[in-house]
Design goal:
alpha+beta; four-stranded antiparallel beta sheet; 10 helices; 7 strands
Length: 238
């Protein structure tokens, strides 16, 4: 960081309150993929929009589709159909898509009759989770279905899905720093509440400190980084 920002007890508290207000109004969306390249960032951005706030909240509108997921009503390894489903979201400009060749190296699951599904790699990595149905409340069911067929790990940007995956017993095993070089062109840079355990893996560590002077410089830099909307990537396993 070139810009020098003085963090005091007063503005740390104000920053935390601002983050809490911001994140009570809207979820920060996240997505999954493990390739350490620019393609990974674009793929995550696309899936962040696919698995958005409405797709993670359970409600009555989702009853039929939830029943289908529970009954395992998926098209398996119909890669052409899966790719069409994956590409059907409203933010297609963010996507560097998997090719059919890529998908043929995974096992793909597309819900019959709906643009929703996920893929699982041979090593258990869950990727390309998407809900482009317009029907809310199926995010948790999709992840549970992926686990049932052998999915055991995933990764995501730190943010609202941090609490979501914690509730599904995915444990953090690695963290990758944000990299400006791989940021999508249309990234929104929205603030993330680093003090809230539902939105950041750093919250529990920050809670140990009673005043600003005790916070290590590395964490102070993370506070500024997250304020600028640059979350780290969190790697998780069951």
């Amino acid at each position: 960081m070139n810009k020098k920002i003085l963090l005091t007890d007063k503005n740390l508290k104000a920053l935390q309150e601002a983050y809490n207000r911001r994140n009570s109004d809207k979820f920060l969306m996240e997505c999954f993929i493990d390739e350490k390249t620019q393609e990974r960032y674009y793929q995550r951005m696309f899936e962040m929009d696919s698995l958005d706030e409405s797709s993670l909240i359970e409600d009555g509108d989702s009853h039929e589709i939830l029943q289908m997921i529970d009954n395992n009503e998926f098209e398996v390894n119909n890669t052409s159909s899966f790719l069409k489903s994956l590409n059907s979201g409203k933010r297609i400009e963010y996507l560097t898509p998997y090719t059919l060749e890529h998908l043929n190296q995974m096992t793909t699951y597309k819900l019959k009759g709906y643009d929703a599904g996920f893929a699982v790699k041979a090593d258990g990595d869950i990727v390309s989770v998407h809900n482009n149905t317009g029907i809310s409340g199926i995010g948790k069911a999709l992840i549970k279905a992926a686990i049932k067929v052998g999915g055991n790990k995933l990764d995501h940007f730190d943010g609202w899905l941090t609490g979501f995956y914690s509730s599904l017993q995915f444990k953090v095993y690695a963290i990758e720093d944000w990299n400006d070089d791989y940021a999508p062109q249309n990234w929104k840079y929205e603030p993330i509440n680093i003090f809230n355990p539902l939105t950041s893996v750093y919250a529990s560590e920050l809670a140990k400190y009673t005043n600003n002077s005790q916070i290590p410089e590395k964490l102070k830099r993370k506070i500024i980084q997250y304020k600028e909307g640059k979350p780290d990537i969190i790697y998780r396993k069951i």
